[in-house]
Amino acid sequence: RPEIVVRMATGMLYGVDRENGKEVWQYKMPHCLPVFTQDEGRVFVADYKTLVSLDRKSGREISRQRIADSYLDALLQDKGVLFVASEDDVSAYDVETLQKQWQERIPDNLELAKSGENLFACGYRGLFALDPKTGKVKWDNHDRIYHLAGGANNEGSVYTADCWRREIRKFDKDGQQVCENRDDIPVAVMKANNGALYVASKFGQVSALDSKTGKQMWRSERIGDYAFPWQIGEAQDRLEVTVTEPYYARESKVISLNPKTGEQF
Fold first, then answer.
1. How far is Cα 177 from Cα 158, in angstroms, rounded to an integer?
2. I want to staple 141 with a disulfide (CB 3.0 to 4.6 A). Which of 49, 92, 127, 196 is the partner?
3. Strand 74-78 and strand 61-66: pairing?
4. Rounded Cα–Cα distance for residues 13 and 55 (Å)
5. 3-class secondary-structure state, position 239
6. Contact assessment for residue 196 and residue 210, using Cβ atoms and an 8 Å cutoff
7. DSSP of 152-167
8. How confident is the model over 14-52, as pLDDT tens digits?
9. CA–CA gap between residue 198 and residue 128 (Å, rounded)
10. Mean pLDDT calculated for residue range 139-153
11. Does the pTM of the predicted model rise above 0.85?
12. Cβ-based neighbours of 45, under 8 Å, separated by 6 or more
């Protein structure tokens, strides 16, 4: 099967063979920036109010089912559960049967993240920590938040980024602030892993922040003069960043960086 699934700014999803970098399959969505998540064998894609499942190996469509009355804004698969954010609700579904397990009203959702025993939802109303088994809200923070990523060591913590103030903060599993970074990073996407938070900025640079202190460990050179990042992830000791250059182009590319130094492979 392809090792990575890449989202492009044109609304295309690609399955890419990690060994040779060649395209294995492609899937065209009816709108740009499709929301997707994946498990070992499938890719789940939000098509407005409908959930589409694809075979991860071939890209073939397996099923298509309407699961919401409003647009699906975020998807997250974790341990056999599919979490879905749609406007004012967060829901959990069994990933095999798509039977709804719970639904909780959370306003203005944009993103979801999972860390330890916490499911996080954020949007224009702030950050909410939910019990992933029941959907019950554990705590909330009504500061303005636009991006988030689950804790770097899966300890139940979460990172948040405010695009207006350009500050990044980390909260522990109980909602207490652990650290912050005010290096004026215009965040586009974030990914937490192995004791670090990787942040791709709107100016085409990638930074690594220490998960305990929030301090910057390294910042890469600019990936391109007008590169805009859409996706960031880590696999096989490489940091994979999908960028469009220039930002209005129809095609994108994947840049591989050393997660310890930020140097480009």
1. 10
2. 127
3. unpaired
4. 12
5. strand
6. yes
7. TTSSS-EEEEETTTTE
8. 888 877 778 899 998 766 666 899 988 899 999 889 999
9. 22
10. 85
11. yes
12. 13, 27, 29, 34, 35, 36, 51, 52, 53, 54, 75
